[in-house]
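Our working data are protein records whose layout never changes between entries. The record below serves as our worked example for the rest of this section:
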Amino acid sequence: MLLWLVIAYLAISVAIGLYGASKVHNARDYVTAGRNLPMAVVLAMVFATWFGAETVLGISATFLKEGFRGLISDPLGASLCLVLFGLIFARPLYRMNLLTLGDYFRIRYNRQTELLLSICIVVSYLGWVAAQITALGLVFNVLSVDAISVTQGMLIGSGVVVLYTVFGGLWSVALTTFVQMIVIIIGLLLVTHFAADQAGGVSYVLAKASAEGKFDFLPSFDMLDMIGWIAALVTMGLGSIPQQDVFQRVNSSRNETIAVWATTLGGVSYFFFAAVPLLLAYTANIIDPQMVAKFIDTDSQMILPTLIMNHMPFYMQVIFFGALISVIMSTASGTLLAPSITFTENILKGFAPRMTDRQLLVSTKLTVLIFSAMVTYYAIATEATIHTMVENAYRITLAGAFVPLAAGLFWKRASNLGAGFAILFGLSTWIILEITGVDEPVPPQLFGLFASLIGMILGSYITPNKRHLQA
């Protein structure tokens, strides 16, 4: 019965998404929803950028093992990214009226920069989308009591998300996400309150977690510990800024005021609401410590679903899994669309400059299908946890794309050669250190960021931006 109710909810979500497809008349509608979305919808989409399977199943399990110290990258770094993007990057980028971030790199630098960084952006989504597909597989496996395997669940889940995303683009993402965010907020608050009551009350749960040091998050005065803490914060906080999914949500706003404040408030909202699944996970440690001990080192992603199935009444199971499905689908649809748009607009179109608007739209839809098949295969093949897949997703954009984006917007001297050196120095340093396994005392992606900055400064002083010289 529970599985059929979830299937009915999926059918409703697909119907809403297909309705969104009726609003798509050209490629710009598909990519930016006509740049006509109001504050509430943009805020919901920005919030959903990070509030996915990682937040509910990934970081909640990490919180049980490591406390908040294990969550510096997410939710702290993820929230920092959205706030920084809203306050610093949203306004100048919104005014440029672009389709993708790749367009910015072409306009500000050249075609080569656009191509290289667009490839980096596309590759970075592989782990992020795969994490959502993995979570969908887990949900179907739990709901069917193993009648549907995790792999079969991944195939079913990816098929559902693709069905409405491929037809309606960002319009479908916007409408479904707005409805799903309502379900998420109400559902998780109800379930967490119910679980906290079972565990002895919210105040008792918070006091017990605090006594165990779960809320400690600042690094010690040890230099290595501080470097590791900063690296975790920066990887997500800066590495996820040059991302198409964040940009496309900002770019769909009706005006630049909405673009700025929906993004900023979305980041703040995400940070505080991410505490809800953390509290829920900790109640599991009180309600069923044997179950937590069983899964914590083997399959920690199963802790929350098992808690709900074993200790919640049927109606609470419906609420939780409805909210969880909403969480995953809202994130998966947006993160599936972002790399597909980047590929067609900034990689494929460069090799077919005479592509019509209709051809661009069809190509993007085909790319959504192909990319979904790729990430589903990766999700099935990899043994990485949801949290690990997400953490690794933004190393490439931190090392290669952040400096060209920030320098291009705020440093007039930044030149084509500087961007080229930034990409070359940053990516090569990061890749070499990753391959050789040198990750102490400074993580490879942080070395890559510093190398990228040096490359930008060196190249821009050797050959400054011509417009800077003329100014």
User: Anything to note?
Assistant: The CA atoms of residues 418 and 456 lie 4 Å apart. The chain has a mean pLDDT of 88.
